[in-house]
Structures are given as C-alpha cells and as structure tokens.
Amino acid sequence: MSAEDTRVPWPRWDSPTEDWMLPGDCPVTSERTLLLELAARILFPAVLVFSLYLLLVGHYGPGGGFSGGLVAGLAFVLRHIAGGSSEGAEIGARIRVRPPVVVGVGLCVAVVTALVPAAFGAPVLSSTKVSVHVPLLGEFEIVSSLALDVGVYLLIVGVVLDLLRSLGSGIERDALDAESEAAS
Amino acid sequence: MLPALPVLLPLLGAGATVVVGRWAWAQRVIGVTVLAAVSVVAAVLLVMADRGGPVVAEIGGWAAPVGIVLVADRLSALLLLISTVVTLAVLVYAIDQRIADYGRRTASTTFHPIFLVLSAGVSLAYLTGDLFSLFVAFEIMLAASYVLITRRTDARRIRSGMTYVIISLTSSLLFLTTVALVYAATGTVNLADLAERVAALPTGLQTVLALLVLVTFGIKAAIVPLHFWLPDSYPNAPAPVTALFAGLLTKVGIYALLRTRTLIFPEGHPSVLLLVLASVTMIVGVLGALAQNDLNRILSFLLVSHIGFMIFGLAVTDAAGAGGTALYVVHHITVQATLFLVSGLITRRTGTVSIDAMGGLAKRAPLLAVLFAIPALTLAGVPPTSGFVAKLALLQAGAGDGVATSVVAGIVILASLLTLYAVVRVWVRVFWGEPREPLPDNDPDDDLVVGTARTATPMYVATAALVAVSLTIAAAAGPLSAVTTRAGDDLVARTPYLGAVLGQEGAR
Amino acid sequence: MTTVSLAMAVVVAALYAVGFYLLLQRSLMRVLLGVVVLGHGANLLLQLTGGPPARPPILGGSAEGSAPLADPLPQALALTAVVITFAMTTYLLALGYRSWVLVGHDEVQDDLEDRRIARRRTPTASMGEEADEQGDEVGVDPGSAAASGDPVGDRS
C-alpha cells in the first residue's frame, strides 16, 4: 500500500499541486483550493476586460469610471482571496507599483481633465466630442470626459488595492505574527 | 473658472503629493505652493467680489438651477482668504514640527495629501451654491479630519477619535436627511433657487426645515448643548491638527448657518431660540474653561464659548448682525488657531498640558509668553486688538435690535470678562511663579518631543506670522469692517447673490 | 402634489429607529451597523423624493406624450451619498480594527476628564499620570479582550 503514503490528507484533497495563479507562481501551498484558483485564473482577465468595457461605454450607457474601477477592483479581490496574501504573493509586490501612487495618478488625471477646458476658455469640467475615423472599424466618438473617467478608474483601483494591502494582507500578517508569538 | 481653483488646486496637490510620496521635500514644496496659490486666488476673488459683485462659475457649463455653481461673494471670498492663510501657517508649523521630531528626510505618505484634501473640502464648503454640494464638501472635509485625528493613534487618541467620528457621522446623516426633506418640499437643491421656493412653503414647514438645518450645523459648529464632543476630541490630537480643526471646522458650520439663515430661511429660525442658544453657549463654554486644568481643554471650552458670540450675531436679523458675525468669524479663525499652535509650543517646552504642573515659563521662554499673551488678550477682546473690534461690531448690531437682544448683549460682555479671567489664569499659572523643570517625555516614540533644544525656529515663525495676521486685522479694522458691513448688506438684501446665480430673471 | 406610500414611510421610520438605537450602543461594531442602517434610511428617503415608483428612467426614448419620467436628480444624489456612506463604513471598520489592536476591544469609552470631574479628584494629574490611569482602566475593563493580548507591535 505504498500509494497510501503519497495520498493527500483529506482536508487538502483539492489543494492545487501546480501553479494556477496569475501571474506566475504562488509560494504558499497551504490553504488553497483548486476550484477557486482555476476560477480566478479564468475570470481575472475577463473581469478586467469587462471593467475596461464599462469604462469606455460609460458616457452614454450604464458604466463609467467608478463602476469600471470597482469591477476591476473586484478582480483583484478575487485574486487576493484565491491566491492568499502572504509575502511575495501580495499584489503590490507583483505589480511593482505602490497602490497610493495609482490613487495619486488617478486623482491628478481627473483634476487636470477638469482644469483643461478652462485653458480653452470653457467652463471648468465641461466636455467636448471628437469624432475619429478608424479604417476598418468606422466612426468613433470620443468624449473628452473619458479622461476624467480614466482618472476615477485609476483612483478606485488604487483604493481597492490599498485596502487589500492594509486591511487584507495587513490583518492576516498581524494574525500570523500573533500566532507565532503565542507559539514561542 | 476662478472660483473653481481653490477646490481643484488642493485636490491636484493632494494627488501630486501621493505620487511623490517618497520624497519629503517635494511633498512640502507642493503643499506650501498650492496653499500659497490658493491664498492669492482667494485674495483676487475677494477684490473682484467686492468691486463687481459675486463671481460665479458654472461647473460644466450648466446654468444655475440645473447645474452646480460655485459662488464667491464677499462673505465666502473673505472667509476663504483667511482660512487659507491660516491653513498655510498651520502647514508650515506642522512641517517644521515633523522635521524637528523625525528629521528632514522622513516622508509621511498620508499627512500632506489629507491636509490638502481637507483644504479643498473647506474651500468647496465656502464656495458652493448648492445644498447637496455643501453636504459633499462637509464629507470631504470631515473624512480628511477623521484621518488626521486618528493618525498615529495611541489608545488615548483612538478613544477621542472615535467620539469625534461617531458624532460627525451622525450629524452628516442628519444633514443628508435634511437635504432629502428640502428636496421633497421644494424640488431643488440650488441655494439661490431654494431662496425663492422656500418662501412659498407654509410657515410651519419652513420652521421645521430651518430647525433641522440648525441642529445639523449646530453639531458641527459645537453649539451648546450639541458641543459635548468637542472638548473631548480636539485636545488629544497633535497641536497643528487641533489648531486647524479649531480654526476652521467649527467656523465652516457657522458659515453654513449664516448662509442658510440669511439666504434660505430669513424668517425660519426663531430669533429667541438663537438668543437662548447663544447665551447658554457663551456661559457654559467659559465656565467649562474655568473648571479645567488641561491647557488644551481650556482652549477648547473657550472655543465653544466663542461660538456663542457668533450665534448671537446670527440672532440679530439685520445687516449689522450678519456683518458683525462675518467679522467675528474672521477674527476667531485666526486667534483660535494661533492659541492652539502656542499651546503646542508650550507643551513641547514643559512636557505636560496640565497648567498646574507648569510655572515660571516666562523666564525660560519670554518669546512664548508674548506669543501667548497677544492672542489670549485678542480672544478676550481687550481694546486695541481684533477681538475688541469684532465684539464691538456684534454689540453695536445687538444694541439696535430690541430688548431681548440687549440683554444677551450684556451676557456677551460678561462672557468676554470671564474669558479674560480664564486666559489670565492660564497665563499666570503657566508663565509666572517659580520655574519648574520640564517633565520627562513619557513616550519618546510619539511626535511630542519635550525639551528646549528640538523646537524648531520656523514653528515660532509660523505662530508669530499668525499673531501678525491677527494684529493686521486689528490695524486694518476700518477697511475690513467696511467689507464685512457690505457683506452683511449683501446677505440680508439677497439680491446680489440671487442675481449673480440665477441671472436677470432671478433678480426680480 | 404626490405623497409617499405608507409602506415606504414605515420602512424609513423603522430604518431610522433601528439606526439611532444602534448608534447609542457601546460597541463600535454596533455603531458601525447603526451608521449603515441609518445611511440606508437616509438614502431611501432621498429616493422617495424622486416621485412615485414605476416611472420610466430618463435614459433613452422620447418623453413626448408619454408618462412623466422619473426624476434623475435624487438618484444621482443617492448614488453620491451611497459612495460616501460606503467610504465611511470602510473607515469605521479600519478604526474598529485599530482599536482592537491597540486597546483590546472596540468599545467606545468614556471621556477620562468627565470621569475625573465626576469623582472630584484633586486635579493634579500630569500627562504622565493621566496615561497611567488610562492604562489601569483598560486593564480592569471587564469587556476587554486583553487576554488575547496585543496582537501586533507598533505599526504606526
């Protein structure tokens, strides 16, 4: 019965043995489930693309920078839940951009968009339409307030990432520290 | 265009200071530059509003009853100017305190952005011509203040911070309720539009809405009996934060009361109620100050007491009352912020906030004694100072407005005398007597470093600059009170504001 | 002049009552729930000001000759208010956690000065003694979860 020795203990029966997470490998193998990781792997890019769609259609249809940013943030939340958040697997460590910088850039983009019309003599925050003809795809209408939406999008994504870092990973790290302190 | 800058520039600065979060010097340069620029814009706005009437900016090009407008009339431009100058001085003080405590290179990712966001919220609250935007402005301002008051928390600060946050949230939700009810009754949230539609409502409904507004802003302005959170929460924050809150936040509440009372509910608030509230606030505040031994708590109670002076100005319905209130707000923003900054300096010298444990500081720090004495006497209203000018304006307004007002004017004088007693008591205990050794710093890690060597000179300079501003107000009392008198006339007449916002049709 | 339906009025009243009741509790978690419920009440009230239900939204189609459209302004206002309430909820959660880390529980405590005045002690406490006194009070607080200890070091 040598097979029994290599059998996984039952609480771990669905623990993944391979790297499913994006991007790259995940150093923590405990407390992972295959189902969630696979779902996260499939859903993560799809949700991000959907959030971009929401961002772009936001001027005329339901959507916009805020809801798009929240949806993108949810993609990261899913990844955080599936992949765990210990050191190294933390999202901030992967992307190499500190979340506050994303927040700051988003805020700057939004405010600059608000101020730019004033340079052309129009009221603050007013917007204009530009029609672009793209070969093969046809006519596009780009509204200048899209830049504002992009700023809001970045702002929200940054806020969600920062929340994951401080309230997600931070609290888990605190709990781990407390456990190791209690054990020693 | 121009009225939008005091809101947008600090927001842009906030974004930029987050991006450059690693470089402390860049944060400092951006913060100071932005606030200096906003001061200049505010000064320009004041001149424009004083010469040519209210300056209106339509956001996104949508005209008044539909879109959001920013309006800078004499009152809002004046308060914006003084608030920004005080904010700038407090920022310089805070920067130098941080350099003195942590060294030149340590950057704080949160302080500068939050500080600028708070400034943007205050500017928006002064400038907005829209009740819901006023709610948003209060939320921006308060959210920033929550972060500032609970930053670097220890157990003591988190307790006081919690009180502050919960009370403020309650008042915000009340404000939201008020906005909903006002919209249900009138179908608009534009202040100028409201001015006309509320007048058509039944008197009872007007009074209910006015009282809701009074309670909402009364909590924010700390009117007795809605003041209890203030002496509990403010004293525990770091000195610059307390100075900023004491100088600005309560006064924004007073501004909102002044604006809504004169513009929307000229008949709504019962003056008798306001007179009673003013008397109770003045007396309870100053008696609370006399019962305390904690320097910051004394100043907080004096702040509450002096809110009563402004409520008294509100209760006087004519233009002189509105103008007197405006002048008093300008004076009080400056002097209260200065006092808390000086208190921070004193605490750094002595290591305690208890005035019983201090003594003889005048020999060790004569400059500090002078820096405390001038704003303290200004607060009490001793003649050549700006406090005297402001109180005189209030009393003159009150004297011509009936018997009840004259009685309360007597209470104003009594409260001023008690204030004088309170500050003299502080001054004697802190600066006279036998010099005592500073207490040891019981927590070396916090940002309170006791001792003489590490108090940076720029902190003194920033405080002295605010004292100078206060003295300038006294020296320029003639032109300034002329401006506030014109502002009061505008407020009571209402036509300049309505005409500027709604166009010719509204000025009928 | 339209009036609000009775059911909605009752719901708003219930939300406000529950919200204010929870706000008066000691535990910050209950206060947080109170803020959430009260926020829902306020937002529902804001929605109700937009006129009777079942009106078509303003998006798409022409309004000519058809039924009156729903008032979009309260919806926009409520959306903004929802976002603000959401942010405040997050902040309160973080504050509650911080309080639990620092103090060991999330109860809203009395003002120390109030207690001292109530006891009429001789007011000689310096700042150092004040901090000591507070430390004692945290220690003896029956509701404190101090047994679990301070889970983290200084994170500030």
Automatic annotation (TrEMBL), chain A:
Transmembrane regions: 38-57, 63-81, 101-122, 142-164
Keyword Signal: no
Membrane topology: Multi-pass membrane protein
Family of the protein in this entry: Belongs to the CPA3 antiporters (TC 2.A.63) subunit B family.
Cellular compartment(s): Cell membrane
Keyword Secreted: no
Alphabetic keyword roster: Cell membrane, Membrane, Transmembrane, Transmembrane helix
Pfam families xref list: MnhB
Name this polypeptide is given: MnhB domain-containing protein
Ranges for domain Na+/H+ antiporter MnhB subunit-related protein: 36-161
From TrEMBL, chain B:
Entry keyword Endoplasmic reticulum: no
GO biological process: ATP synthesis coupled electron transport
Record InterPro entries: CPA3_Na-H_Antiporter_D, NADH_UbQ_OxRdtase, ND/Mrp_TM
A GO CC annotation given for this chain: plasma membrane
Keywords annotated in UniProt: Cell membrane, Membrane, Oxidoreductase, Transmembrane, Transmembrane helix
Sequence intervals crossing the membrane: 26-48, 78-95, 107-126, 132-149, 161-185, 205-230, 237-258, 270-291, 298-316, 328-346, 367-383, 403-428
Classification via Pfam families: Proton_antipo_M (PF00361)
EC numbers on record: 1.6.99.5
Domain of life, per lineage: Bacteria
Keyword RNA-binding: no
Limits of the NADH:quinone oxidoreductase/Mrp antiporter transmembrane domain: 129-411
Family listed: Belongs to the CPA3 antiporters (TC 2.A.63) subunit D family.
Name by which UniProt lists this protein: NADH dehydrogenase (Quinone)
Organism of derivation: Pseudonocardia dioxanivorans (strain ATCC 55486 / DSM 44775 / JCM 13855 / CB1190)
UniProtKB/TrEMBL annotation, chain C:
InterPro entries registered for this protein in UniProt: CPA3_antiporter_subunitC, NUOK/Mnh_C1-like
Keyword hit for Cell membrane: yes
Acidic residues bias (residue ranges): 129-139
GO cellular component, one term: plasma membrane
Taxonomy, superkingdom: Bacteria
Region annotated Disordered, chain positions: 117-156
Stretches that traverse the bilayer: 6-24, 31-49, 76-97
Keyword Phosphoprotein: no
Membrane topology according to the record: Multi-pass membrane protein
Keywords (A to Z) from UniProt: Cell membrane, Membrane, Transmembrane, Transmembrane helix
Annotated compartments: Cell membrane
PANTHER family noted in UniProt: ANTIPORTER SUBUNIT MNHC2-RELATED (PTHR34583:SF2)
Family in the record: Belongs to the CPA3 antiporters (TC 2.A.63) subunit C family.
Protein name, UniProt field: NADH-ubiquinone oxidoreductase chain 4L
Organism: Pseudonocardia dioxanivorans (strain ATCC 55486 / DSM 44775 / JCM 13855 / CB1190)
